[in-house]
């Protein structure tokens, strides 16, 4: 029996598409997530009607989480030495897509999930329920999906270093003050705000929206080559002793803690480091 996709696509209005992540229990990014999302984004980029794409989660406690490293060997490899890895190609496509992307963030948003959110145009977050982080370094890894390239442009070098080096979770209010997200709203108001913004943008001229986005991109996006290099450094870090030593401890903690490991990831990273 075919497993259901971790990604669903809906068209609530002719000019609006909604992409929903749902991979219970913790919305980890698995190979199917990357492949399906890449397919959807490529198709929407060719659709002349689509002006706004909203990203949200089907799970209340997790927006998009980190990569499922137990499936790391199954993530799609490059088809060509000169081609960007599929994850890098995905986040580059999102940044440059001829439509406006909006994240409606409710729940934990870490690692690759945070890097995906950073590639979107507008990020609106639940004050009570959104958390953000880049936990790779605490696990002996390196960020590889654009976090080291995009986050400093939003929050500044020193704050980006704190986020990446500490591997801690950051709440929505601090993320808003630092410029990590566009705006924080009370959880009860988040959905209506995002829907209203999407409808407003969908009523505008598509060429004007896409052209304005392209102009801002010129002033703000990191070079594509830097993201490609970063993914290579992430992939290499999966083979290093620092990660392999901590991975064994983390797997033992996951077996003991179950889903609580994902709820309190920063604390468990600290425990895994003490055992390494």
Describe it for me?
The strands form 2 sheets. This protein has a 6-stranded mixed sheet with strand order 1-2-3-5-7-10, with helices on both faces. The model has no long low-confidence stretch (mean pLDDT 94). Helix content is 50%, strand content 16%. The longest helix has 17 residues, at 241-257. With 276 residues, it is an alpha/beta fold. Helix 10 (241-257) packs across helix 12.
- Return the structural class: alpha/beta
Q: Roughly how many Å apart are the termini? A: 40 Å
Order of strands, widest sheet? 1-2-3-5-7-10
User: What is the number of helical segments per DSSP (H or I, 4+ residues)?
Assistant: 12
Would you list the SSEs in sequence order as H and E?
EEHEEHEEHEEHHEHEHHHHHH
Instruction: Report mean pLDDT, rounded to a whole number.
Output: 94
What labels describe this entry?
single chain; 276 residues; alpha/beta; four-stranded mixed sheet; 12 helices; 10 strands; 16% strand
List the helices and strands and how they pair.
Blueprint: E1 7-13, E2 16-21, H1 31-45, E3 52-57, E4 62-64, H2 86-96, E5 100-105, E6 108-110, H3 112-119, E7 122-126, E8 131-133, H4 147-155, H5 157-166, E9 170-171, H6 172-178, E10 183-185, H7 187-202, H8 206-220, H9 224-237, H10 241-257, H11 260-263, H12 265-275
Helix pairs in contact: 1-2, 4-5, 10-12
């Amino acid at each position: 029996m075919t497993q259901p996709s971790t990604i669903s696509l809906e068209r609530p209005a002719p000019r609006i598409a909604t992409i929903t992540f749902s991979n219970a229990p913790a919305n980890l990014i698995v190979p199917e997530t990357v492949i399906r999302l890449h397919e959807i984004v490529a198709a929407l980029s060719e659709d002349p009607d689509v002006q706004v794409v909203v990203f949200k989660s089907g799970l209340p406690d997790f927006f998009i989480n980190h990569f499922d490293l137990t499936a790391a060997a199954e993530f799609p490899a490059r088809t060509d030495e000169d081609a960007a890895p599929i994850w890098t190609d995905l986040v580059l496509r999102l940044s440059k897509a001829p439509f406006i992307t909006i994240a409606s963030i409710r729940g934990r948003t870490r690692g690759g999930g945070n890097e995906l959110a950073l590639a979107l145009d507008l990020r609106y977050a639940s004050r009570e329920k959104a958390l953000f982080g880049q936990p790779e370094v605490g696990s002996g890894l390196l960020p590889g999906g654009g976090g080291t390239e995009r986050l400093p442009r939003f929050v500044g070098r020193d704050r980006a270093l704190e986020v990446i080096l500490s591997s801690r979770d950051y709440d929505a209010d601090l993320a808003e003050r630092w410029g990590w997200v566009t705006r924080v709203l009370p959880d009860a108001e988040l959905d209506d705000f995002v829907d209203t913004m999407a409808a407003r943008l969908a009523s505008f001229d598509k060429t004007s929206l896409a052209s304005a986005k392209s102009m801002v991109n010129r002033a703000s996006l990191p070079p594509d080559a830097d993201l490609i290099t970063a993914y290579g450094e992430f992939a290499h870090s999966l083979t290093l002793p620092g990660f392999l030593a901590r991975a064994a401890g983390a797997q033992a903690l996951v077996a003991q803690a179950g889903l609580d490991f994902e709820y309190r990831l920063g604390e468990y990273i600290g425990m895994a480091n003490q055992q390494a």
